[in-house]
Specification:
The complex is a heterodimer of chains A (about 290) and B (about 160). By secondary structure, chain A is an alpha+beta fold. Chain A is built from 12 helices and 14 strands. Chain A has 3 domains: about 50 residues, Uridine Diphospho-n-acetylenolpyruvylglucosamine Reductase, domain 2; about 120 residues, Uridine Diphospho-n-acetylenolpyruvylglucosamine Reductase, domain 3, CATH 3.30.465.10; about 110 residues, Enolase-like, domain 1 (2-Layer Sandwich), CATH 3.30.390.50. Chain A has a 5-stranded antiparallel sheet. In chain A, strands 11-12-13-14 form a 4-stranded antiparallel sheet, sandwiched between helices. Chain B is an alpha+beta fold and about 160 residues long. Chain B has 2 domains: about 80 residues, Ubiquitin-like (UB roll), CATH 3.10.20; about 70 residues, [2Fe-2S]-binding domain (DNA polymerase, domain 1), CATH 1.10.150. Chain B contains 5 helices and 5 strands; from the N terminus they run ββαβββαααα. In chain B, a hairpin with a 2-residue loop joins β3 and β4. Chain B starts with a strand and ends with a helix. The chains are: A alpha+beta (about 290), B alpha+beta (about 160). Chains A and B meet through α2 and α6 of A and β4 and α3 of B.
Chain lengths: ~290, ~160
Protein backbone atom coordinates (compact mmCIF):
# COMPACT_ATOMS: atom_id res chain seq x y z
CA UNK A 1 0.00 0.00 0.00
CA UNK A 2 1.13 3.55 -0.62
CA UNK A 3 1.88 5.64 2.46
CA UNK A 4 -0.92 7.58 4.11
CA UNK A 5 -1.64 9.27 7.41
CA UNK A 6 -4.14 7.75 9.83
CA UNK A 7 -6.28 9.39 12.47
CA UNK A 8 -8.97 7.83 14.66
CA UNK A 9 -10.94 10.68 16.23
CA UNK A 10 -12.48 9.66 19.55
CA UNK A 11 -15.59 11.78 19.11
CA UNK A 12 -17.66 13.52 16.48
CA UNK A 13 -16.32 17.03 17.15
CA UNK A 14 -12.75 15.85 16.61
CA UNK A 15 -13.73 13.99 13.44
CA UNK A 16 -15.50 17.03 12.00
CA UNK A 17 -12.53 19.24 12.88
CA UNK A 18 -10.15 16.92 11.00
CA UNK A 19 -12.47 16.75 8.00
CA UNK A 20 -12.97 20.52 7.99
CA UNK A 21 -9.24 21.10 8.08
CA UNK A 22 -8.74 18.90 5.02
CA UNK A 23 -11.74 20.39 3.23
CA UNK A 24 -10.38 23.93 3.72
CA UNK A 25 -6.83 22.99 2.74
CA UNK A 26 -8.06 21.02 -0.27
CA UNK A 27 -6.15 17.93 0.91
CA UNK A 28 -7.61 14.50 0.66
CA UNK A 29 -9.34 12.83 3.61
CA UNK A 30 -10.91 9.42 3.18
CA UNK A 31 -13.33 7.82 5.64
CA UNK A 32 -12.66 4.34 7.01
CA UNK A 33 -15.33 2.13 8.57
CA UNK A 34 -14.90 -1.64 8.18
CA UNK A 35 -12.24 -1.21 5.50
CA UNK A 36 -13.18 -4.30 3.48
CA UNK A 37 -13.51 -2.24 0.30
CA UNK A 38 -11.16 0.61 1.22
CA UNK A 39 -8.08 -1.48 2.05
CA UNK A 40 -8.37 -3.37 -1.22
CA UNK A 41 -8.69 -0.05 -3.08
CA UNK A 42 -5.72 1.44 -1.21
CA UNK A 43 -3.62 -1.52 -2.25
CA UNK A 44 -4.53 -1.47 -5.92
CA UNK A 45 -5.88 1.87 -7.05
CA UNK A 46 -4.35 5.32 -7.00
CA UNK A 47 -1.79 6.02 -4.34
CA UNK A 48 -2.15 9.80 -4.04
CA UNK A 49 -1.41 11.04 -0.52
CA UNK A 50 -4.32 11.17 1.84
CA UNK A 51 -5.38 10.97 5.44
CA UNK A 52 -7.49 8.02 6.45
CA UNK A 53 -10.08 9.07 9.03
CA UNK A 54 -11.24 6.05 11.02
CA UNK A 55 -14.82 6.68 12.18
CA UNK A 56 -15.12 3.57 14.36
CA UNK A 57 -14.29 5.32 17.65
CA UNK A 58 -17.14 7.82 17.33
CA UNK A 59 -20.00 6.85 19.67
CA UNK A 60 -22.75 7.86 17.22
CA UNK A 61 -21.43 5.54 14.49
CA UNK A 62 -21.41 2.57 16.86
CA UNK A 63 -24.94 2.75 18.14
CA UNK A 64 -28.05 0.74 17.30
CA UNK A 65 -31.20 2.44 18.65
CA UNK A 66 -34.49 0.64 18.33
CA UNK A 67 -37.14 3.12 19.40
CA UNK A 68 -40.92 3.02 19.28
CA UNK A 69 -40.94 5.34 16.24
CA UNK A 70 -37.51 5.05 14.68
CA UNK A 71 -34.64 2.65 14.24
CA UNK A 72 -31.09 3.97 13.92
CA UNK A 73 -28.10 1.95 12.76
CA UNK A 74 -24.68 3.60 13.15
CA UNK A 75 -22.49 3.60 10.08
CA UNK A 76 -19.66 1.66 11.77
CA UNK A 77 -21.78 -1.31 12.90
CA UNK A 78 -20.39 -4.46 11.27
CA UNK A 79 -22.81 -6.81 9.49
CA UNK A 80 -22.04 -9.60 11.96
CA UNK A 81 -23.32 -7.39 14.80
CA UNK A 82 -26.44 -6.47 12.81
CA UNK A 83 -27.15 -10.09 12.03
CA UNK A 84 -26.91 -11.14 15.68
CA UNK A 85 -29.53 -8.56 16.67
CA UNK A 86 -32.75 -10.57 16.96
CA UNK A 87 -34.92 -7.48 17.42
CA UNK A 88 -33.62 -6.00 14.15
CA UNK A 89 -34.04 -9.36 12.43
CA UNK A 90 -37.72 -9.31 13.37
CA UNK A 91 -38.19 -5.70 12.19
CA UNK A 92 -36.09 -5.76 8.98
CA UNK A 93 -35.55 -9.37 7.89
CA UNK A 94 -34.87 -8.24 4.32
CA UNK A 95 -32.20 -5.72 5.27
CA UNK A 96 -30.45 -8.26 7.47
CA UNK A 97 -30.57 -10.99 4.86
CA UNK A 98 -29.00 -8.55 2.41
CA UNK A 99 -26.20 -7.72 4.87
CA UNK A 100 -25.73 -11.45 5.46
CA UNK A 101 -25.19 -12.02 1.71
CA UNK A 102 -22.18 -9.71 1.56
CA UNK A 103 -18.88 -11.59 1.64
CA UNK A 104 -17.69 -14.27 4.02
CA UNK A 105 -17.97 -14.62 7.79
CA UNK A 106 -14.62 -12.80 7.97
CA UNK A 107 -15.82 -9.93 5.79
CA UNK A 108 -19.02 -9.60 7.81
CA UNK A 109 -16.91 -9.25 10.94
CA UNK A 110 -15.73 -5.87 9.60
CA UNK A 111 -17.96 -4.74 6.72
CA UNK A 112 -20.71 -2.21 7.47
CA UNK A 113 -23.89 -1.38 5.58
CA UNK A 114 -22.91 2.29 5.87
CA UNK A 115 -19.68 1.48 4.07
CA UNK A 116 -21.51 -0.63 1.49
CA UNK A 117 -23.65 2.43 0.79
CA UNK A 118 -20.76 4.93 0.66
CA UNK A 119 -18.74 2.63 -1.60
CA UNK A 120 -21.72 2.94 -3.97
CA UNK A 121 -21.09 -0.15 -6.06
CA UNK A 122 -24.05 -0.70 -8.42
CA UNK A 123 -24.18 -4.26 -7.01
CA UNK A 124 -23.93 -3.48 -3.27
CA UNK A 125 -26.48 -5.89 -1.78
CA UNK A 126 -27.54 -3.88 1.25
CA UNK A 127 -28.42 -0.79 -0.80
CA UNK A 128 -31.68 -1.90 -2.50
CA UNK A 129 -32.69 -3.46 0.82
CA UNK A 130 -32.10 -0.14 2.64
CA UNK A 131 -34.01 1.79 -0.02
CA UNK A 132 -36.93 -0.65 0.20
CA UNK A 133 -36.94 -0.33 3.99
CA UNK A 134 -37.16 3.46 3.63
CA UNK A 135 -33.64 4.19 4.89
CA UNK A 136 -32.55 7.78 5.40
CA UNK A 137 -28.89 8.81 5.62
CA UNK A 138 -27.91 10.91 8.63
CA UNK A 139 -25.06 13.10 7.40
CA UNK A 140 -23.04 15.46 9.58
CA UNK A 141 -20.70 18.24 8.54
CA UNK A 142 -19.51 21.65 9.63
CA UNK A 143 -22.94 23.13 8.89
CA UNK A 144 -24.77 20.61 11.04
CA UNK A 145 -26.83 17.53 10.32
CA UNK A 146 -28.76 16.84 7.15
CA UNK A 147 -30.85 13.88 6.11
CA UNK A 148 -31.12 12.33 2.69
CA UNK A 149 -33.10 9.28 1.54
CA UNK A 150 -30.74 6.43 0.60
CA UNK A 151 -31.94 6.49 -3.03
CA UNK A 152 -30.83 10.15 -3.29
CA UNK A 153 -27.45 9.52 -1.66
CA UNK A 154 -26.12 7.60 -4.65
CA UNK A 155 -24.87 9.85 -7.43
CA UNK A 156 -23.08 7.41 -9.73
CA UNK A 157 -20.88 4.34 -9.87
CA UNK A 158 -18.69 4.61 -6.75
CA UNK A 159 -20.01 8.12 -6.06
CA UNK A 160 -22.12 9.45 -3.22
CA UNK A 161 -23.57 12.73 -2.02
CA UNK A 162 -21.09 13.37 0.80
CA UNK A 163 -19.44 16.78 0.47
CA UNK A 164 -15.86 17.35 1.63
CA UNK A 165 -16.04 17.77 5.40
CA UNK A 166 -19.06 15.50 5.80
CA UNK A 167 -19.47 11.97 7.08
CA UNK A 168 -22.28 9.42 7.17
CA UNK A 169 -23.17 9.02 10.83
CA UNK A 170 -25.79 6.33 10.38
CA UNK A 171 -29.05 5.26 8.81
CA UNK A 172 -32.51 5.96 10.10
CA UNK A 173 -35.65 3.97 9.40
CA UNK A 174 -39.24 4.42 10.41
CA UNK A 175 -40.04 1.51 12.72
CA UNK A 176 -42.23 -0.87 10.69
CA UNK A 177 -45.84 -0.96 11.85
CA UNK A 178 -48.10 -4.02 12.00
CA UNK A 179 -48.31 -6.25 8.90
CA UNK A 180 -45.23 -4.64 7.40
CA UNK A 181 -42.25 -6.67 6.21
CA UNK A 182 -39.33 -6.55 3.82
CA UNK A 183 -37.36 -9.06 1.77
CA UNK A 184 -34.25 -8.99 -0.42
CA UNK A 185 -33.16 -11.43 -3.10
CA UNK A 186 -30.20 -11.38 -5.43
CA UNK A 187 -29.12 -13.70 -8.16
CA UNK A 188 -25.57 -15.07 -8.34
CA UNK A 189 -24.38 -18.09 -10.33
CA UNK A 190 -23.04 -19.82 -7.20
CA UNK A 191 -24.47 -20.20 -3.70
CA UNK A 192 -22.16 -17.90 -1.73
CA UNK A 193 -19.41 -15.29 -1.98
CA UNK A 194 -20.27 -13.60 -5.25
CA UNK A 195 -21.39 -10.25 -6.61
CA UNK A 196 -25.04 -9.74 -7.56
CA UNK A 197 -26.01 -10.13 -11.22
CA UNK A 198 -29.28 -8.49 -10.19
CA UNK A 199 -30.96 -7.79 -6.86
CA UNK A 200 -34.33 -6.61 -5.62
CA UNK A 201 -35.57 -5.38 -2.24
CA UNK A 202 -39.27 -5.08 -1.45
CA UNK A 203 -41.14 -3.77 1.58
CA UNK A 204 -44.92 -4.03 1.86
CA UNK A 205 -47.62 -3.12 4.35
CA UNK A 206 -50.94 -4.98 4.31
CA UNK A 207 -54.27 -4.11 5.88
CA UNK A 208 -56.28 -6.65 7.84
CA UNK A 209 -57.77 -8.04 4.63
CA UNK A 210 -54.37 -8.59 3.07
CA UNK A 211 -54.62 -5.64 0.70
CA UNK A 212 -51.35 -3.82 0.09
CA UNK A 213 -51.54 -0.28 1.52
CA UNK A 214 -47.86 0.71 1.18
CA UNK A 215 -44.96 -0.63 -0.83
CA UNK A 216 -41.39 0.22 -1.77
CA UNK A 217 -39.42 -1.65 -4.41
CA UNK A 218 -35.73 -1.11 -5.19
CA UNK A 219 -33.43 -2.79 -7.67
CA UNK A 220 -29.66 -3.30 -7.73
CA UNK A 221 -26.91 -4.26 -10.20
CA UNK A 222 -29.09 -3.32 -13.18
CA UNK A 223 -28.24 0.42 -13.39
CA UNK A 224 -25.31 2.69 -12.45
CA UNK A 225 -26.82 2.96 -8.96
CA UNK A 226 -29.43 1.08 -7.00
CA UNK A 227 -32.83 2.57 -7.83
CA UNK A 228 -36.17 3.07 -6.16
CA UNK A 229 -38.87 1.91 -8.61
CA UNK A 230 -42.09 3.83 -7.79
CA UNK A 231 -43.93 2.20 -10.73
CA UNK A 232 -43.33 -1.24 -9.22
CA UNK A 233 -44.73 -0.06 -5.88
CA UNK A 234 -47.76 1.40 -7.73
CA UNK A 235 -48.41 -2.01 -9.28
CA UNK A 236 -48.56 -3.58 -5.81
CA UNK A 237 -50.67 -0.92 -4.08
CA UNK A 238 -54.33 -1.80 -3.63
CA UNK A 239 -53.76 -5.41 -4.69
CA UNK A 240 -53.73 -8.58 -2.63
CA UNK A 241 -50.21 -9.13 -3.97
CA UNK A 242 -51.58 -11.82 -6.26
CA UNK A 243 -49.68 -13.15 -9.28
CA UNK A 244 -50.98 -10.42 -11.61
CA UNK A 245 -49.81 -7.65 -9.29
CA UNK A 246 -46.40 -9.30 -8.76
CA UNK A 247 -45.97 -9.77 -12.52
CA UNK A 248 -46.82 -6.11 -13.14
CA UNK A 249 -44.33 -5.02 -10.45
CA UNK A 250 -41.66 -7.23 -12.01
CA UNK A 251 -42.33 -5.71 -15.43
CA UNK A 252 -41.93 -2.24 -13.90
CA UNK A 253 -38.52 -3.28 -12.54
CA UNK A 254 -37.45 -4.49 -15.99
CA UNK A 255 -38.64 -1.19 -17.48
CA UNK A 256 -36.71 0.83 -14.88
CA UNK A 257 -33.48 -1.09 -15.37
CA UNK A 258 -30.63 -0.02 -17.65
CA UNK A 259 -28.03 -2.73 -17.12
CA UNK A 260 -24.75 -3.41 -18.86
CA UNK A 261 -23.49 -6.71 -20.25
CA UNK A 262 -20.42 -8.06 -18.48
CA UNK A 263 -18.99 -11.41 -17.47
CA UNK A 264 -21.75 -11.82 -14.88
CA UNK A 265 -24.67 -11.46 -17.26
CA UNK A 266 -26.02 -9.82 -20.38
CA UNK A 267 -28.38 -6.86 -20.61
CA UNK A 268 -31.26 -9.15 -21.68
CA UNK A 269 -30.61 -11.63 -18.89
CA UNK A 270 -30.40 -8.99 -16.16
CA UNK A 271 -33.58 -7.27 -17.33
CA UNK A 272 -35.43 -10.57 -17.18
CA UNK A 273 -33.97 -11.78 -13.89
CA UNK A 274 -34.68 -8.54 -12.03
CA UNK A 275 -38.41 -9.08 -12.71
CA UNK A 276 -38.22 -12.63 -11.35
CA UNK A 277 -36.43 -11.42 -8.23
CA UNK A 278 -39.04 -8.69 -7.73
CA UNK A 279 -41.91 -11.17 -7.94
CA UNK A 280 -40.27 -13.59 -5.54
CA UNK A 281 -39.09 -10.94 -3.05
CA UNK A 282 -42.56 -9.36 -3.03
CA UNK A 283 -44.13 -12.77 -2.34
CA UNK A 284 -41.72 -13.35 0.55
CA UNK A 285 -42.39 -9.86 1.98
CA UNK A 286 -46.15 -10.50 1.63
CA UNK A 287 -45.97 -13.82 3.47
CA UNK A 288 -43.85 -12.28 6.22
CA UNK A 289 -46.27 -9.35 6.57
CA UNK A 290 -49.14 -11.82 7.00
CA UNK A 291 -47.10 -13.32 9.85
CA UNK B 1 6.07 8.31 7.62
CA UNK B 2 6.19 8.26 11.39
CA UNK B 3 5.56 4.99 13.10
CA UNK B 4 2.63 4.70 15.46
CA UNK B 5 2.76 2.90 18.78
CA UNK B 6 -0.01 0.33 19.14
CA UNK B 7 -0.94 -1.58 22.31
CA UNK B 8 -2.77 -4.88 21.98
CA UNK B 9 -3.22 -8.21 23.63
CA UNK B 10 -2.20 -11.14 21.44
CA UNK B 11 -3.14 -14.64 22.59
CA UNK B 12 -3.55 -13.29 26.12
CA UNK B 13 -0.20 -11.46 26.30
CA UNK B 14 0.19 -7.70 26.30
CA UNK B 15 2.02 -6.78 23.11
CA UNK B 16 3.11 -3.33 21.96
CA UNK B 17 4.42 -2.68 18.50
CA UNK B 18 5.36 0.17 16.20
CA UNK B 19 3.87 0.23 12.76
CA UNK B 20 3.33 2.50 9.79
CA UNK B 21 -0.28 3.45 9.06
CA UNK B 22 -0.31 1.51 5.79
CA UNK B 23 0.87 -1.77 7.34
CA UNK B 24 -1.85 -4.35 7.71
CA UNK B 25 -2.33 -6.35 10.88
CA UNK B 26 -1.20 -9.37 8.84
CA UNK B 27 2.10 -7.68 7.98
CA UNK B 28 2.62 -6.66 11.59
CA UNK B 29 1.93 -10.18 12.85
CA UNK B 30 4.25 -11.83 10.36
CA UNK B 31 7.00 -9.30 9.81
CA UNK B 32 7.19 -7.28 13.02
CA UNK B 33 6.12 -9.87 15.59
CA UNK B 34 7.41 -13.02 13.84
CA UNK B 35 4.06 -14.72 14.26
CA UNK B 36 4.21 -16.40 10.87
CA UNK B 37 1.50 -18.99 11.58
CA UNK B 38 -1.02 -16.59 10.06
CA UNK B 39 -0.62 -16.91 6.29
CA UNK B 40 -0.88 -14.46 3.46
CA UNK B 41 -2.97 -15.68 0.56
CA UNK B 42 -4.77 -13.16 -1.61
CA UNK B 43 -4.43 -9.99 0.50
CA UNK B 44 -7.85 -8.89 -0.73
CA UNK B 45 -10.07 -10.61 1.83
CA UNK B 46 -11.17 -13.41 -0.47
CA UNK B 47 -9.25 -16.46 0.75
CA UNK B 48 -9.32 -16.41 4.56
CA UNK B 49 -5.73 -17.68 4.98
CA UNK B 50 -4.99 -14.69 7.24
CA UNK B 51 -8.01 -15.25 9.54
CA UNK B 52 -7.57 -14.12 13.14
CA UNK B 53 -9.97 -13.19 15.91
CA UNK B 54 -10.12 -9.48 16.68
CA UNK B 55 -12.06 -8.90 19.91
CA UNK B 56 -13.61 -12.35 19.41
CA UNK B 57 -14.74 -11.49 15.90
CA UNK B 58 -13.42 -13.54 12.96
CA UNK B 59 -11.71 -11.19 10.48
CA UNK B 60 -9.18 -11.22 7.65
CA UNK B 61 -6.04 -9.65 9.10
CA UNK B 62 -5.11 -8.44 5.59
CA UNK B 63 -8.13 -6.11 5.73
CA UNK B 64 -7.28 -4.61 9.13
CA UNK B 65 -4.66 -1.93 9.55
CA UNK B 66 -2.15 -2.54 12.33
CA UNK B 67 -3.10 0.85 13.78
CA UNK B 68 -6.76 -0.19 13.92
CA UNK B 69 -5.82 -2.94 16.37
CA UNK B 70 -5.06 -0.37 19.10
CA UNK B 71 -6.64 -1.60 22.35
CA UNK B 72 -7.87 -4.88 20.84
CA UNK B 73 -7.54 -8.50 21.82
CA UNK B 74 -6.19 -10.61 19.00
CA UNK B 75 -6.14 -14.41 18.83
CA UNK B 76 -3.99 -16.15 16.26
CA UNK B 77 -3.19 -19.78 15.42
CA UNK B 78 -0.18 -19.54 17.77
CA UNK B 79 -2.59 -19.30 20.70
CA UNK B 80 -4.49 -22.48 19.86
CA UNK B 81 -2.29 -25.25 21.24
CA UNK B 82 -2.16 -25.42 25.04
CA UNK B 83 0.58 -26.59 27.39
CA UNK B 84 -0.83 -30.11 27.08
CA UNK B 85 -0.53 -30.22 23.32
CA UNK B 86 -2.61 -29.52 20.27
CA UNK B 87 -6.10 -28.07 20.49
CA UNK B 88 -8.76 -30.72 19.67
CA UNK B 89 -9.53 -28.89 16.40
CA UNK B 90 -5.87 -29.11 15.36
CA UNK B 91 -5.80 -32.78 16.39
CA UNK B 92 -8.89 -33.58 14.33
CA UNK B 93 -7.51 -31.80 11.26
CA UNK B 94 -4.48 -34.09 11.53
CA UNK B 95 -6.49 -37.26 12.14
CA UNK B 96 -8.78 -36.60 9.19
CA UNK B 97 -5.94 -35.50 6.92
CA UNK B 98 -7.90 -32.29 6.41
CA UNK B 99 -4.88 -30.57 4.89
CA UNK B 100 -2.39 -31.03 2.14
CA UNK B 101 -0.16 -28.05 1.43
CA UNK B 102 -1.22 -26.42 4.71
CA UNK B 103 -1.38 -22.76 3.67
CA UNK B 104 -5.10 -22.50 4.35
CA UNK B 105 -4.98 -24.60 7.52
CA UNK B 106 -4.23 -21.95 10.20
CA UNK B 107 -7.05 -19.79 8.86
CA UNK B 108 -9.44 -22.73 8.72
CA UNK B 109 -8.60 -23.76 12.27
CA UNK B 110 -9.07 -20.23 13.62
CA UNK B 111 -12.37 -19.94 11.69
CA UNK B 112 -13.49 -23.32 13.00
CA UNK B 113 -12.76 -22.26 16.57
CA UNK B 114 -14.83 -19.12 16.07
CA UNK B 115 -17.69 -21.25 14.74
CA UNK B 116 -17.62 -23.84 17.51
CA UNK B 117 -17.34 -21.16 20.22
CA UNK B 118 -20.56 -19.65 18.87
CA UNK B 119 -22.34 -22.83 17.79
CA UNK B 120 -20.98 -26.00 19.42
CA UNK B 121 -23.11 -28.32 17.28
CA UNK B 122 -23.33 -26.95 13.73
CA UNK B 123 -24.85 -29.00 10.92
CA UNK B 124 -22.92 -29.58 7.70
CA UNK B 125 -24.61 -26.74 5.84
CA UNK B 126 -23.78 -24.29 8.63
CA UNK B 127 -20.16 -25.45 8.61
CA UNK B 128 -19.87 -25.06 4.84
CA UNK B 129 -21.39 -21.57 4.82
CA UNK B 130 -19.33 -20.42 7.82
CA UNK B 131 -16.12 -21.63 6.16
CA UNK B 132 -17.06 -20.32 2.68
CA UNK B 133 -14.51 -17.53 3.15
CA UNK B 134 -11.64 -19.99 3.69
CA UNK B 135 -10.42 -21.26 0.35
CA UNK B 136 -8.54 -24.55 0.11
CA UNK B 137 -7.20 -25.49 -3.30
CA UNK B 138 -6.02 -28.98 -2.29
CA UNK B 139 -8.54 -30.97 -0.32
CA UNK B 140 -11.94 -30.43 -1.90
CA UNK B 141 -13.22 -29.52 1.60
CA UNK B 142 -14.80 -32.86 2.42
CA UNK B 143 -12.16 -33.91 4.91
CA UNK B 144 -12.18 -30.43 6.42
CA UNK B 145 -15.92 -30.62 7.05
CA UNK B 146 -15.52 -34.06 8.61
CA UNK B 147 -12.69 -32.81 10.83
CA UNK B 148 -14.85 -29.92 12.01
CA UNK B 149 -17.78 -32.24 12.77
CA UNK B 150 -15.51 -34.60 14.67
CA UNK B 151 -13.88 -31.70 16.57
CA UNK B 152 -17.34 -30.48 17.58
CA UNK B 153 -18.11 -33.95 18.99
CA UNK B 154 -14.76 -34.11 20.75
CA UNK B 155 -15.20 -30.69 22.34
CA UNK B 156 -18.73 -31.56 23.50
CA UNK B 157 -17.72 -34.95 24.90
CA UNK B 158 -13.94 -35.16 25.41
CA UNK B 159 -12.79 -38.73 24.99
Amino acid sequence: MGAFAYVAPSNLEEALAVLKEHASAGTRAQLLAGGTDLLVQLRSADKTPRTIVDIKKIAETNRIDIGSEEVYIGSAIPSAVLNENTELAALFPGLLEAADLIGSTQIQGRATVGGNLCNASPAGDSIPAMIAAGGVCVIVGAKGTRELPVEDFLTGVGKNALEPGELLLGLKFKRPGPRTADAYLRFIPRTEMDIAVAGCGVSVTLDQNGTCTAARVAIGAVAPTALLVPAAAEALLGSKLDDDALTAAGAACTAASSPISDKRGTVEYRRKVVAVLCRRAAAIARDRAKG
Amino acid sequence: MNKVQVSTSINGEEVEFLCEPQQTLLEVLRETLDKTGTKEGCSTGDCGACSVLLDDRLVCSCLVLGVEAQGSEISTIEGMAGSEGLHPIQQKFLEHAALQCGICTPGLIVATKALLDKNPNPDEETIRYWLAGNLCRCTGYDKIVRAVQDAAKELAHPA
